[in-house]
Design brief:
CATH topology: Aminopeptidase
Number of domains: 1
Keywords: Acyltransferase, Ribonucleoprotein, Ribosomal protein, Transferase
Organism: Blastococcus tunisiensis
Largest sheet: 8 strands, mixed
CATH superfamily: Gcn5-related N-acetyltransferase (GNAT)
InterPro entries: Acyl_CoA_acyltransferase, Bact_Acetyltransf, GNAT_dom
CATH class: Alpha Beta
Number of strands: 8
GO molecular function, one term: acyltransferase activity, transferring groups other than amino-acyl groups
CATH architecture: 3-Layer(aba) Sandwich
Helix content: 25-40%
Order of helices and strands: EEHHHEEEHEHEE
Domain N-acetyltransferase: 8-166
Structural class: alpha+beta
Length: 166
C-alpha cells in the first residue's frame, strides 16, 4: 500500500523510524499543549502503538518522516470503536514545519481508504476540544460530530468523537 501526493508518500512505518515518530508525536502533542505532560510516555510508545494498530507514516522526498497516524482496524486500541464494522485512527501528527501541504488530509484519506477496503462501514476518532485545526480538517472531509459518544479517558480530559460513514 502506497498513497502518493506529489513527492510525498504514505507507507507502513519501519521499526527504525519509531524513534523519529516518538519525537515528532511528543513534540506536537505534549510540547504543543495538546496533551498533558504525563501523557508523553504513551505518546512516545511507538512500538506499543505499532503492536496494536497499523502505524502509517508520510515521508518527504528525502524519505524523512513528516507525519504519522495509527490506524485501528481491529482490537481494543481504538477505544472509541463500538462494533466490528468501525475503524478508528489515533495520534495523527504532522510536523509543524510541513503544515499546509495536505499531509494531514493525505494521512486521513489513506486511513479511510484502507478501512473501506477492509470492509469497515464507519471511521471514528477522538479529538480534544483544543484541536480546532484538526476539527476543520475532519469536517471538510465529511466527518460529523457524535456528541453522544464523547468520553473521558481520565478525569480532567474530555474527548470529542467524530465519525465518517464509509
Amino acid at each position: 500500500m502506497v498513497q502518493r501526493a506529489s513527492s510525498l508518500s504514505v507507507q507502513p512505518a519501519r521499526p527504525e523510524e519509531f524513534g523519529d515518530i516518538a519525537e515528532l508525536t511528543v513534540r506536537v502533542y505534549a510540547d504543543g499543549g495538546l496533551a498533558p505532560p504525563d501523557y508523553a510516555a504513551e505518546l512516545a510508545d511507538v512500538a506499543g502503538r505499532a503492536a496494536r494498530a497499523d502505524l502509517l507514516v508520510v515521508r518527504d522526498g528525502d524519505d524523512h518522516v513528516v507525519g504519522s497516524v495509527a490506524l485501528v482496524l481491529s482490537g481494543d486500541f481504538g477505544e472509541v470503536t463500538r462494533s466490528e464494522d468501525e475503524a478508528a485512527f489515533r495520534m495523527l501528527v504532522v510536523d509543524p514545519s510541513q503544515r499546509g501541504r495536505g499531509l494531514g488530509e493525505l494521512l486521513v484519506t489513506t486511513c479511510t481508504d484502507l478501512a473501506r477496503a477492509a470492509g469497515k462501514r464507519r471511521m471514528v476518532l477522538s479529538t480534544g476540544p483544543e484541536m480546532t485545526a484538526a476539527h476543520r480538517l475532519y469536517e471538510r472531509l465529511g466527518f460529523r460530530r457524535l456528541p453522544e459518544r464523547d468520553w473521558s479517558p481520565v478525569p480532567g480530559i474530555e474527548l470529542m468523537v467524530y465519525a465518517l460513514d464509509l
